[in-house]
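User: Okay, second chain of the day. Same drill as before: sequence in, structure tokens out.
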Amino acid sequence: SILCPVRNMTETNEQQQQQQQEHCDPFSNCDFDFCGKGRKDVDDSIAPVDSNSRYGTSADEADLKVQTVVTNEPESTDDLEEATSTVASVSVAGKSYQEDETVESAAKNTDAYSQSQDTYDEQEEPMKEGKSNLRRNRIIIVICLIVFIAIVIVGAALAPRGAKKDTTASLSEISDGKNDASDGPTVPPVEVLSPEGKVDQLIRLEAIFGGEEFNDKDSYQKKALDWVISDSIVQRRSLADTPSNVRWTDEQIVQRYALASFYYSTYSVPHNYTEEFFGGDVKPWVNNSNWMERDSECEWFGIDCDDDGHVTGINMHDNHLSGSLPREITLMKLLELLDVPNNGLYNSGEDGNDWLGDMAEMKYLSFAENYFDYYGIPTTFSKLTNLRELDCSYTLYYGPLKEEVFQGLDELEYVVLSGNQYDGPLPTSLLTLPALENLYASHTSVTGSLDFLTDLKGKIAPLTEFWLDENSIEGSIPVAIGSMEGLLSFSAAYNQLSGPIPTELGQLTDMKQIWLYNNDLTGTVPTELSSLTKLEMFLAMNNTLTGSVPDGMCGIESLEDDWFVVDCGLDVTCDCCRGNCSF
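Assistant: Same drill. Structure tokens below.
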């Protein structure tokens, strides 16, 4: 038990301990009513140290300090250290005054204090252990709190990632504030978009001009966006809880916007050439059946789709389209056919034409007989590596025919360049395309000669129809033409060709049509042409031919009367031309 001051110094240690156990709490200070005056009173009774004493403390003073220490409770560790120091100093003083009885008393009191110190240590040990356990428990609790907070922070950090996955996966599949338990813990959404909001956000993400086109409320893009947003079908089918077999995908919403753009961009939209084309005011489409009305755009007039509902073709020839062909067409990624000839469309310059080369899956492209204005042919067409047919005839294309345009178009089979104003010869990259069968470049102001037939012998495209009439081609017809074994139709009328008709033409036994009129050809009609037993047309008037037409040609049954024409008269004789000597 902890030592306490007692009233009677003559009481025995046994009585002292008994009183302590009965009236003192071993884990708190002793009762002052029992234990006597407090420590401060005793401390004040201690005499000051005599600085002249050899050891700093006289025997009487030492005895008084020992009694004070033994009869008072140490209140703190500092008090305990002070008591120990006092006893030690008294021990030193006792060595100098061994005969003094006070020293003996100090020694006895020192022994008593040592016993009390041992008892105090025994009581202090469980207290220290208790404090240590408490400290350890507190540390464990703090660690647990730190771990818990860390888990909460990590969970909060991971939560937005899950939410982001929902918003980026498919805007048309985001539910309206609903969560699927199978997807894991529910994460509060950052924002729940309405069907209209989802469609608006999706289309703005795909917008060709980054959304700036929607700032103009009168633009065809803004009209198309507003229509798609207000379309109840899109709103209903864009919901994630709609059955998957009728739910619109993102691609279908975007292609719906692309077709709406096509409609608002080409339906009764005037431009500089509409009066010329319509002969007056602009007119509506000839046929707009189901457009902007029916559930599926695949049921709209002129639209072809695959089995999955993706638009693959637009057939709008001769339908009074006006305005301009919109660039939003490129948003239909699987579009393979764009057929809009003989309309009143006006697309000008790079902005109106270069984007045509961005339709990666395009196979059949025709915008003939429209008002497409461009210097040359867009070199972006070289990106259309799946292209098989190209018809840009009778537009407003003019200028040079660059080699880059046709490079790499190895699938191209059919090309119509007629009716434009090019300058220079046909590019070699076009003439040597490996799959090219039909090449029509009539009335295009092409210059040069036919010498490429010799220069490219063995490399020339496997042409079956080759039309170059109404150009500025000079020189003779090369004998190399006889090596074009698959040639069925050849036209070089209205040029400046001279010299004889080559006998090698007779080697093309599958030939059906030959137009050579309005040139400066000389000589006779070769007898070798009699072997062209499949010939249906032979027009060679308005030249300076002489001699007689071979009798063998008169026996060709497929050669119709109206299409077998040469110059008759004094210079040319024909016994079987059936009177059709010239027009």
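Residues 214 and 222 are 5 Å apart (CA to CA).

User: Thanks, on to the next one.
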